[in-house]
Amino acid sequence: xxxxxxxxxxxxxxxxxxxxxNGLTIVIFPKPGFQQKYAVFATHYGGMDSVFIPxxxxxxxxxxxxxxxxxEHKLFDQPDETNVLQEFTRLGASPNAFTSQxxxxxxxxxxxxxxxxxxxxxxxxxxxxFTAESVEKEQGIIGQEIQMGLDDPNxxxxxxxxxxxxxxxxxxxxxxxxxxxxxxxxxxILYQCHDTFYHPSNMMLAVAGDVDPNAVIEQVKRDMxxxxxxxxxxIQRIIPDEPAGVIQSEVRHVLRVSRPSVLVGxxxxxxxxxxxxxxxxxxxxxxxxxxLGALFNRHTEFYWDLYxxxxxxxxxxxxxxxxxxxxxxxxGGETENPERLIEAITATLSRACSDGISVDAFEKQRKxxxxxxxxxxxxxxxxxxxxxxxxxxxxxxxxxxxxxxxxAVEEAQEALQQIIASNDRVxxxxxxxxxxx
Amino acid sequence: MAQQFAFHSVDLAPGIRAxxxxxxxxxxxxxxxxxxLPLSEETVAGAALLPQILRRGTxxxxxxxxxxxxxxxxxxxxxxxxxxxxxxxxxxxxxLSLPADAYVSEPVFNAGLELLRAVMFxxxxxxxxxxxxYVEQEKQLQIGRIRSLINQKIQYAVTRCVSExxxxxxxxxxxxxxxxxxxxxxxxxxxxxxxKLLAESPIDVYVVGAVDPDQVASQLKxxxxxxxxxxxxxxxxxxxxxxxxxxxxxxxxxxxQAWLVHxxxxxxxxxxxxxxxxxxxxxxxxxxxQSKLFMNVRERASLAYAxxxxxxxxxxxxxxxxxxxxDNYEQASQLMQEQVEAxxxxxxxxxxxxxxxxxxxxxLRSTADSxxxxxxxxxxxxxxxxxxxxxxxxxxxxxxSREQVAEVGQQLQLDTVFLLRGKAKQPAPVG
Lengths: 437, 431
What we know:
The complex is a heterodimer of chains A (437) and B (431).
Chain A: E1 4-8, E2 13-19, E3 25-30, E4 37-43, E5 51-53, E6 61-62, H1 67-74, H2 84-90, E7 94-99, E8 104-110, H3 114-125, H4 132-149, H5 153-165, H6 179-183, H7 187-197, E9 203-209, H8 213-225, E10 236-237, E11 250-255, E12 261-267, H9 278-296, H10 301-307, E13 317-323, E14 326-334, H11 338-355, H12 359-377, H13 380-392, H14 399-406, H15 409-420, E15 425-432
Parallel strand pairs in A: 3-9, 11-15
Antiparallel strand pairs in A: 1-2, 2-3, 4-8, 4-9, 5-6, 5-10, 7-8, 12-14, 12-15, 13-14
Chain B: E1 8-13, E2 16-22, E3 28-38, H1 44-54, H2 64-73, E4 78-86, E5 89-99, H3 109-121, H4 132-147, H5 153-165, H6 179-183, H7 187-200, E6 203-209, H8 213-224, E7 247-253, E8 258-265, H9 275-287, H10 292-300, E9 304-312, E10 317-324, H11 329-344, H12 350-366, H13 371-384, H14 390-398, H15 402-411, E11 413-422
Parallel strand pairs in B: 2-6, 7-11
Antiparallel strand pairs in B: 1-2, 3-5, 3-6, 4-5, 8-10, 8-11, 9-10
Helix pairs in contact in B: 3-8, 9-12, 9-15, 10-11, 11-15, 12-14
């Protein structure tokens, strides 16, 4: 496929895209005037990919929880026993990486020497080097990261919610894994995961900044040419159907915190078998986002009613998270009155279901979302990351702009009802230790 | 071609300055206004609470929900009110960000500016004071924020270390004050403080975005020029090493991990030419993934998941920290000290030097990609009466020698070692 350029007039943003013969998709967002250049090399592989059939085999392989994140840490090791982070620092670049449930992304920002930085990025992500010794050392480092997460109320309240909502679906797996699971990781399994998921046909490279798009594409082509990738069929991921029901409808956990944290979750898929394409599904997600803002954002009675007595604090949050064939809504945050917050969230959602969403609040939230979208265009790195994540899901990031402007309140209403109609509801609470505060 | 990032400076009224940076780079326009006052035990809690009360409602939109709906109508204009600690100052911050008029179907900039003015100068009022409900509610919420600092362990450990190291200076005050300080605030005192700040505080206003500088200057004048006599200028930050040995403070809380913080103090103020050497020292110590702390405490010894340092250029202070297993305290603390010693000896490889220098320069130049970053950088200098362009800062760094950096290390003094750790060893959970 030759490079295609699209100019989004309303946003004044150009996007250039090309898919190489080996399956790699390259996307470039020119940002004239910006000092920083950003590149992200990402694989559609995350904490949820725990069962799959490796290429050329027929039996499913079950890998330890936390391996995608572990692999991310270990990929920085070079065959000459150095760490590639230091190579980036030499160029003045800021490198980093993250692993989420769906994807693993390796990225850097740089001002000068972009070409050298890009070569380095492409090379280290495609050069796995794992030894028994380095894996053992990493088990210690990640073990500490896991322990630290156990002190963090935001993480714990979320882990507990997901582990109670989902019975079978890998959405319940902690991206970071557990002390026990990461102990089972070996160099052999790491190599196998890398071979399966780091093939270019499962990856994307996105670049944002004041760069010459053709030069970037040519550079990537030169890099790929020397690596002789064979074409691959799509990866077979084994994702079980999530049954109805939850593990437990309430989960409590005690930590050294000053006040409780609460999340109320509802499990329901917004994906429909009769959707003509992925965009119909994406549009429903856009609609639900606006609807949730219309119910819970700062311009609602709900918010100010609960704000007044500390039932809502600065950490209040809400959102719907989609997964393959399932998903969940979560609403909550730190609170002085967990019972009142839980009751108010529940009542607001069921009232929205029976009486509908306020059209005025919906339209105001639409305007807010339009403003947020513009602010993402001002942050080249977040724009590139969002674009990649959307594409891995089969969505079109820029189509969301039109959807935001077009979607009707009735569509949002219907999608919201679909979630609330679900009886699969969990309340997750983190409580302060007695005498803690 | 490198753009020049120098703000256009305009005086709006006595003690009220505007700094304007026109640029087509961003889809949104950013406006920020800062009221300066000295950090002091008497006013810290009140000055921190005021922005929260002011943000609730204005004379025209006294109900919070009305103000929020008005902002939503401006395409989700965001209006933040809060406080910063910059050197020895507490700075009240009111910032507005909204889409540039070209990107939305009706113009919003002027209406946004009007809201910013109303929040700062025309609060919702009852019987010559703030609304009693707003005061009481915001007091409770602020107390909740102060208590919840413990929920984020690393921030808590760093804040506690700073308050111990600077227990006899205003800089040691926590930016929101104490629970008791907030509890003792009343409507009358808060109203009087607000009036006093409007009369006596130097105010700096910044605009970054797709604006015409002359037009925006007159818009700012119309909106924000207070009729008042010229206020007293505030002194720059006091920077001085404390006499005496390093102190060790251990605080135990029920938790799994531990956080270790070293506070290193110097006599190097913001305007001191040695500042560039101190910035470089911090970069080499813990400012990058190639730094001595990252390489030796995290990578080689595997003693920590996180190990880094940060430099407060206004106060001449470096805070080095590591997230460690509680049993590794002595070993990690000693290893952190050894990294400082190595730099003092000038033990710096070519790779460390070049990489750190490039990283610092990259960060400086990247500031220009973020309106908030541009504004904060300029404001930090304004507090100390020093204006340095990004180019000048880069020259300062590029002209450094290793000897200068080692020498600046000799002037640093370990002031306080702070450890936040679990009360009792708990068995590792099985997951």
